[in-house]
Amino acid sequence: KVHILGIIDDNVNPDKFRVKIAQVEDFLKKHDISFDSETVKGNNPAETTINYAKKINADLIMIMTDQEETLTGSLLGTYAQQIVNHSKTPVFSVRPIEGTYAPLDLTGDWRIE
After folding, report:
1. What is the distance between the alpha carbons of residues 45 and 25, in angstroms, rounded to a whole number?
2. 54 near 25, Cβ under 8 Å?
3. β-pair type (35-41, 61-64)
4. Which of 19, 40, 51, 59 has its CA 20 to 30 A from that of 9?
5. Could you write out the three-class secondary structure of the chain?
6. Over 90: is that where the pLDDT of 61 sits?
């Protein structure tokens, strides 16, 4: 079972954020994958994520990470670093593909443009 956790703060528009969560839910529904979805407010996303993982007894935390460029290469962003450094639950980090997402057709399939 996949647990989707959306973490918002005062700087995030909840309506726009909900669209992103809905895309994940639609994908999982299409592939008959069982899921729960929860959106919470939090000022420390890493701490909120780790606490949620403990609460649901997660086997794995999967996060999307933006990477920060340095002179010697790329480093994980602050959120990802905190998760990896402090979580007792294994962490799977995915770097998103750049691009815009648009519906492929009326069935709800998504593609990257």
Report:
1. 20
2. no
3. unpaired
4. 59
5. CEEEEEEECCCCCHHHHHHHHHHHHHHHHHCCCCEEEEEEECCCHHHHHHHHHHHCCCCCEEEECCEEEECCEEEECHHHHHHHHHCCCCEEEECCCCCCEEECCCCCCEEEC
6. yes
